[in-house]
Amino acid sequence: MPEIKKIGIITSGGDAPGMNAAVRAVTRTAASKNIEVIGFYKGYAGILDKDFVELSYSSVGGIMEKGGTILRTARVPEFKNPEIRAEAARNLKDLKVDGLVVIGGEGSLTGAKLLFEEHNIPVIGIPASIDNDIPDTDMAIGVDTCLNTAVDAMQKLKDTASSHERAFIVEVMGRGSGYIALMSGLSVGAEAVIIPEVPVDYNELTDRIWQERKRGKINCIVVVAEGAASAYSVARHFENKIGYETRITILGHIQRGGSPTAFDRILASRMGYSAVNFLLEGKFGTMVALEKGQTVTVPLEKVLSEKKVLDPKLIDLVNTLS
Amino acid sequence: MPEIKKIGIITSGGDAPGMNAAVRAVTRTAASKNIEVIGFYKGYAGILDKDFVELSYSSVGGIMEKGGTILRTARVPEFKNPEIRAEAARNLKDLKVDGLVVIGGEGSLTGAKLLFEEHNIPVIGIPASIDNDIPDTDMAIGVDTCLNTAVDAMQKLKDTASSHERAFIVEVMGRGSGYIALMSGLSVGAEAVIIPEVPVDYNELTDRIWQERKRGKINCIVVVAEGAASAYSVARHFENKIGYETRITILGHIQRGGSPTAFDRILASRMGYSAVNFLLEGKFGTMVALEKGQTVTVPLEKVLSEKKVLDPKLIDLVNTLS
Amino acid sequence: MPEIKKIGIITSGGDAPGMNAAVRAVTRTAASKNIEVIGFYKGYAGILDKDFVELSYSSVGGIMEKGGTILRTARVPEFKNPEIRAEAARNLKDLKVDGLVVIGGEGSLTGAKLLFEEHNIPVIGIPASIDNDIPDTDMAIGVDTCLNTAVDAMQKLKDTASSHERAFIVEVMGRGSGYIALMSGLSVGAEAVIIPEVPVDYNELTDRIWQERKRGKINCIVVVAEGAASAYSVARHFENKIGYETRITILGHIQRGGSPTAFDRILASRMGYSAVNFLLEGKFGTMVALEKGQTVTVPLEKVLSEKKVLDPKLIDLVNTLS
Amino acid sequence: MPEIKKIGIITSGGDAPGMNAAVRAVTRTAASKNIEVIGFYKGYAGILDKDFVELSYSSVGGIMEKGGTILRTARVPEFKNPEIRAEAARNLKDLKVDGLVVIGGEGSLTGAKLLFEEHNIPVIGIPASIDNDIPDTDMAIGVDTCLNTAVDAMQKLKDTASSHERAFIVEVMGRGSGYIALMSGLSVGAEAVIIPEVPVDYNELTDRIWQERKRGKINCIVVVAEGAASAYSVARHFENKIGYETRITILGHIQRGGSPTAFDRILASRMGYSAVNFLLEGKFGTMVALEKGQTVTVPLEKVLSEKKVLDPKLIDLVNTLS
To answer: Per UniProt, where does ADP bind (chains A, B, C, D) (predicted)?
Structure first.
């Protein structure tokens, strides 16, 4: 079993609420075992620039409740270049980092996997992505907070929607996945949800909405994932087809912010705590996953060879209840 | 002094959080004096269609905390036609309405003023408009809730803005007034606020932001009132001038919704209570206003002959603190 | 396979946020299959009194976001009497209820189990209990909302705790289980958590807090489950032992209220939807459970013969991170 | 006109949300005029101990949204001793502080007044007190946030109160003033409010509640100011007189915490900005007050010779609407 004296942490890719709670948990768990911790700034860029901060039990106090990430984050496209990765590996060895915790989404975990495969860097991943698009874990850090933010916003729309006769189109995040759109739409009883996974027939959709209106339904909230269509194009369909007045909301990066929910604080704390324990058990090249309510490891290779798909039962559920 | 046996209420124009609290207060204050109350649906349309509901002490229970308006609302452009107003006046007299409470913004209050001037309908207005654009009252119903909604949303952006290097452009309501943009920008320490009242020089603005960035400022949140520019056009200026990556949020009607804040519940309760008392004192053709923390009446003619302007000291304040 | 034409629903025992979302999901799923639905008021009392309401697709509109339960709830101690249960069974047969959905905690599910065993009533349970004390399901309805409520409250305490030098004692719900106390304490980084599952040594505890204070720790938040001690008795220990000024918060029933979180809305919607489908599959005498992110059935007999225990790893986690 | 080169700030007494926004506004307004700013820690204690920090434009970034006070606060009873005040005055002169901004409640402002009268220290006060008990200003910093916190909590109680048949007793802050109890009770439509200003007749109160229950009113929320009675003693009256089951919530210091509302951020920003400008105009020995929506100065001597009383119209309003 390898001895671990120093752990490095990065937060990488799109930020997600709860990343700070994970940083805190890794740091304090390591500190309880007398392991040093350093946090690199701006993800892989910090490793390349040797731009880091020493983290201690007390320096991570009061960060759990903060949105975003105190380590900041960046997308580092040059990390696709093997020579750049080699440089990162050299830097990590120079700095005597015996374990690297990578907190982020698929792109970030791919970087981790390659550092492990190519340079034998003892990495462990923690899934953080508001899109819930990471396979092999029931939930990723940030999803729950993001959903609650979207639901709170849409709930406010319902108030005003009931006062007027209009369609409200809300664009939410989700380039490749309709998870946020579907789950937030379910949570507010939206009249329709437009997602990348299911082709939309605007004729059928606007007809249905029109029939419902005639039967007395006042509210009309349509949730659209940015990966399926833009709010503006959906609005045009409504206005052209049924002459419906529409109003648009684009939530944008509000969905990435906010103090994390209890769920995300707990999930991030558990995953950060487990990441250190798994590193000590030598489970390198893996990702911490939530499975049946327990934290387990899954090889990064497996995680990254799969694609998370939306449960079709959820789609039927939304259609039945809306 | 006229005897008042029956009061009618309408909520009209754009809905504002707190309208229900005003309806409740009018109803319960009237009920305590054995005055009947009816609520017309959809503003002036309900008067024209004699579409109304009897309101009682208990029927308005549990509505105070709801956003929107249980009486629904509508814009009724045909009310600009004097014959239509004559019809409304006839209906009110048929229904033996001795006092009409009009809860809404400038358009709605103009209708009230004309009903009073042309047909001697004993009206009293209650200012409700999230834009805070109604003269002669310190605050209108809905402003405080709207501001808090905008501030909560922008605060979430700050988290994620600190994690990345980007400009975040947030479009808020305010066609004719920059009040919401200015006050919400002040409340989150936005880097810039673009409002209809002050011409914007994009060269100067983007230069300043660029200088601040070079001095180490990470966040960049720009708030824009819809009446000054669209978020997209602001974003284009940033991207073209300084190559800044931008992200857009358009809050839209979220700003009209939500359970009212304590301030709006209290303001609406006080104004509704006072409206009934002022009607009983014969103060027709007036609007209830908040002045030095007290509810007073102001003639509708005066209110509607003025234009509320943004206090220039507030603009200097925002420039100093941001 | 039995034919199901009419389903009855009760919400029973302590109310939990999300119960309404479950009622809505059962009703709309049943309605989509042309099954009639009636909701009994006040749990088993409504069955005994034949006090119920017909529920339809539209009558459950707008209830998902409401805390509490529109069907109201009650504890009915006389339901321990077999003759009373026989009467309930007769009433259900009189009313031609072919399936009974019981939404509640252990006491309520025990009633359901007995109706099934003694009178062959085709029951299915949905676990709802803010204490998360129901075995065989990862989560019960209401837990997530309750936790977020407690965390929001404690987070506010942290602000003021950092400004002063005092200990803040917060009493949360949990007669038999320390789940809420432990998870909320974890989520805010409380300095100590006192739960029924772990005996507390006040000498050791106050010594530790005192040492931390001397090392510069400003905050001191102690969370106590009502089943372990009262806030007042904890405060006395602090004041007597270390002369610490203390301040007390007792959250009380605030923890049962509030609009449900996205998690609880989704969980309740999925469980309500599945409950109807499981009834149609003849899975009587069971409870809907969340297991590995899927809804499954577990025999009520099994559920009620077990006791949910706190995962000791969670306790170690809290000790490590606090 | 005196030249001001250096300003000192303290936050003193009970903390109130918005204090940080005031510190930020004073600092940035002073910085814009090239005035140095130092913040003393723990109120007057920091002046006595010369325990302070230099504040700059950037060091107050990101503090506006935080509850509590970054300068911490303390009650310093020995400040009643003239010799101690003389020492504080000497320290301020040693440190070349040309203007002292005191942010706090009546006790803190009394200290400021004495420093001005006895030692000619150029002080200016900013009213901050969640109780809204400071005369001559429409609002003090922190009141609005406190009210919203209380209202949010009570609104959650209403959900669960409607599900059960019980009385819920909520104890809120307010030793000498019933403002918070009255305004929060108004905002949630509480069935009764017990405040120090109005003697309570428990026979009459419990009779009324009982009659309302018999007429079908389900909810029963009673708000009590800590200065009038304890929640427990109110509960005993209910249980003894009418055998009513009761449940207790004691909000405690939660009411002091939380991120400030838009109102408090704006009020604190305006008052901090004005305080600096008023100091430059030589308006020493005064307090910044909000009057008719404008910031003005009032001599501390006047403020402290008066007592703010609850507007009796507000009490009638609450009785009429509840």
So the answer is: 24-28, 158, 189-191, 215, 217-219
Predicted pLDDT at A213: 82
Length of chain B, in residues: 322
Q: Best residue in D34, D139, D213, D320 to probe B by mutation, most B CBs within 10 Å? A: D320
pLDDT, tens digit, 9 for 90 and up, residues C281-290: 999 999 999 9
| DSSP labels, B62-89 | T-TT-SS-TT-----GGGGSHHHHHHHH
Listed in sequence order, the residues at least 6 apart from B55 whose beta carbon sits closer than 8 Å to its beta carbon are B9, B23, B27, B37, B38, B39
pLDDT at A131: 92
- Round to whole Å and give the CA distance between C54 and C36: 8
How far apart (Å, rounded) are the C-alpha atoms in residues D158 and D151? 10
Tell me what pLDDT residue C277 has. Answer: 97
Cβ contact, residue pair B186, D265, below 8 Å: yes
C105 annotated as belonging to a binding site for a ligand? yes
In chain C, which residues have their Cβ closer than 8 Å to the Cβ of D250? Answer: 248-250, 252
State the nearest Cα–Cα gap between C59 and chain A, in angstroms: 12
**What would the mean pLDDT of B68-90 be, rounded to a whole number?**
95
Please name the residues in contact with C18: beta carbons below 8 A apart, sequence gap of 6 or more: C128, C141, C142, C145, C260, C264, C265, C267, C268
Model confidence band, residue B80 (pLDDT cutoffs 50, 70, 90) = very high
Level-2 CATH architecture, domain C146-257: 3-Layer(aba) Sandwich (3.40)
Task: Look at strands D36-40 and D6-11 and give their pairing.
Answer: parallel
Name beta bridge partners: D10: D102
Residues whose CB is less than 8 angstroms from the CB of residue B116 and which lie 6 or more positions away in sequence, other chains included:
B122, B123, B284, B285, B300
Tell me the CATH architecture of domain B6-142+260-305. 3-Layer(aba) Sandwich (3.40)
**Which chain D residue lies closest to B277 (C-alpha atoms)?**
D317
Q: Residue B250 and residue A249: Cβ atoms within 8 Å?
A: yes
The domain ranges of chain C are 6-142+260-305, 146-257
Stretch D122-141: mean pLDDT, rounded?
96
- Kindly report the number of other CB atoms within 10 A of residue B243's CB atom: 9
The DSSP letter of residue C252 is G
**Whether C147 and A292 lie within 8 Å, measured CB to CB:** no
CB spacing of D159 vs C258 below 8 angstroms: yes
In DSSP notation, C3-17 reads ---EEEEEE-SS--T
Phi-psi region of B72 (alpha: psi -120 to 50; beta: other; left: phi over 0): left
- Decide if B6-142+260-305 and B144-257 have a common fold: yes
CA distances from B24 to B11, B43, B141, C65, C279 (A): 12, 16, 14, 22, 44
Interface of C with A (CB under 8 A): 24-25, 28-29, 32, 58, 61-62, 64-65, 138, 144, 147-148, 150-151, 155, 158, 162, 183-184, 186-189, 216, 259, 261-263, 265-266, 269-270, 273, 291-293, 317, 320-321
Quick one: fold of B144-257? Rossmann fold (3.40.50)
Q: Do B67 and A160 touch (CB under 8 A)?
A: yes
* CA distance readout (Å), D206 to C93, D220, D321: 42, 11, 18
Cβ within 8 Å of residue A206, ≥6 positions away = A237, A238, A241, A242, A244
Q: How far is A54 from chain C (nearest CA, A)?
A: 18
Architecture of domain D146-256: 3-Layer(aba) Sandwich (3.40)
Tokens of A106: 């698929």
Write the residue in A155, A218, A249 that is nearest to B253 by C-beta: A249
Within chain C, what is the greatest distance between any pair of CA atoms? Answer: 70
Q: Which of A131, A133, A136, A144 is catalytic?
A: A131
Higher pLDDT, C219 or B32: B32
3-state SS class at A168: strand
pLDDT at B244 over 90: no
